[in-house]
Amino acid sequence: LQADVGPEQAEGLALPGAKARWAEAEAAKLGRFAAVHVRSNLPSKDWPLASFAALRDGLRARLGLACVQVGGNGDPRVPGDLAADHRGGLAWTETAALLSRAALFVGPDSGCMHASRAVREVPAVALWGATSPLNSGLFGGAVANLEPARWCAHGGRPCHARCDWTAPCVDSVPVEEALAAA
Q1: Buried b (16+ CB within 10 A) or exposed e, 67-85
Q2: Which residues lie below 8 Å from residue 92, measured CB to CB, with a gap of 6+?
Q3: Where are the beta strands (DSSP E) in the chain?
Q4: pLDDT tens-digit map of 10-35
Q5: What is the dihedral of CA 101, 104, 106, 111, to 10 degrees?
Q6: Each residue of 104-150: pLDDT tens digit?
Q7: What is the layout of strands, in order, in the sheet containing 143-146?
């Protein structure tokens, strides 16, 4: 990746110059945007699509952020209007470059979540379910690690301490809480 890095290199992980220039042009078209990723490798970490749609509306109304969806071919689309839908349409380096230009990242514990911090310390709202932010969470400035333990009926025990890895415990994280964190 180092060979094609120019002055437009993002803070953090070096990105290929051509990919960084593409992301800069894409970001210029979009304006200030939140990158949204909806799926992880475990159902217990995936927030409902309806919650993402409500969050998208709140981010637009309260913060003036457009929403751009990133992810793979198999990821479901957030219902309603998106500024851009890049599910399955980008190489990994393009996704990373686009994440480096985001004003905010919102999504579950996933590769995209970690990439958002590797390319630049993108402000993030990270949604947790069966995994613990204590083990693999985002740290540093402007990060909200939202765990469902506060809202579910398991005596305040963290989801990762009692989860069967398929329970939809992250569903209990309120949209309003994610908006306030953003």
Answers
A1: bbbbbeeebeebeeebbbe
A2: none
A3: 33-36, 66-71, 84-87, 104-108, 124-127, 143-146
A4: 456 778 789 999 999 999 999 999 99
A5: 40
A6: 999 998 889 888 888 888 999 998 876 767 777 777 778 888 876 65
A7: 84-87, 66-71, 33-36, 104-108, 124-127, 143-146
Which pTM does this prediction carry? 0.83
Residue 156: both structure tokens together: 């305040």
Q: What are the distances in angstroms from CA 164 to CA 38, 49, 54, 159, 169?
A: 20, 22, 28, 9, 10
Say which residues have a Cβ less than 8 Å from residue 4's Cβ, sequence separation at least 6: 16, 17, 18
List CB contacts of 82: < 8 A, sequence separation 6 or more: 56, 67, 68, 69
